[in-house]
Specification:
207 residues, binds fe (ii) ion, Alpha-D-Glucose-1,6-Bisphosphate, Chain A, domain 4, globular, 34% strand, alpha+beta
């Protein structure tokens, strides 16, 4: 195993949403197959506290080609999120670092590492071109979700509760700003929890 077998790509962006909103977006698994064109199906098998294991059915930019990829995510510390995945026999490690700039802006450093040993070396030129393209596509798909989340968090929105009933309470001065706490709750019978091997799977026969 050699370090030279690693393809590394780093992309840095700034966005007008808080660090908490940016992190929430990474851990809001509900939106995956609704918002992202590349995700056909996404099954969470286990999640707890700061980690999650999931199996995604991904569509790649070749006609009719889909493949299954196991994904492990962990919120390593306050700012850093690691995602390990295996795509078509290639191990990847994504490091997301979110640095707060102001209450409503942050910097996101997205570092991708692909382990391309043996025959996988031939994928290097392809991945070098495709990773920034894929990143930009996912970024644009996620962008309105983050903007919307920031807007409602500023209006004192609470998950599963909604906006305050008093209109005068729907303001920034009433909002506590911190909308991110793991695990991000999902509705009962979420479409992320339908795999029969999922820890949250509820059999139709169970009461
Ligand atoms: Fe997303």
């Amino acid at each position: 195993m050699r370090e030279s077998d690693i393809l590394e790509v780093e992309i840095i962006k700034e966005i007008n949403c808080s660090k908490e909103v940016a992190l929430w977006n990474y851990w809001d698994h509900e939106h995956l197959d609704v918002v992202h064109e590349g995700y056909k199906k996404s099954d969470i098998l286990y999640d707890k506290n700061n980690f999650m294991f999931r199996v995604d059915n991904i569509k790649v930019p070749f006609p009719f080609l889909k493949f299954l990829t196991p994904v492990f995510m962990v919120q390593h510390d306050e700012n850093t999120l690691f995602t390990y995945a295996v795509q078509m026999g290639v191990i990847s490690k994504t490091t997301i670092t979110v640095n707060s700039k102001t209450n409503s802006s942050c910097e996101i450093i997205m570092n991708y590492k692909f382990f391309l040993n043996g025959w996988r070396k031939i994928l290097k030129p392809f991945l070098k071109i495709m990773i920034p393209k894929w990143n930009e596509k996912v970024w644009l798909e996620d962008y309105p979700i983050k903007m919307r989340r920031q807007k409602v968090v500023d209006m004192n929105f609470k998950d599963f509760k909604g906006l305050p009933s008093k209109i005068s309470s729907r303001s920034k001065k009433n909002a506590n700003g911190n909308s991110f706490k793991l695990p991000v709750p999902r509705p009962i019978n979420s479409s992320r929890d339908l795999h029969p091997l999922s820890i949250k799977f509820r059999s139709k026969n169970s009461k």
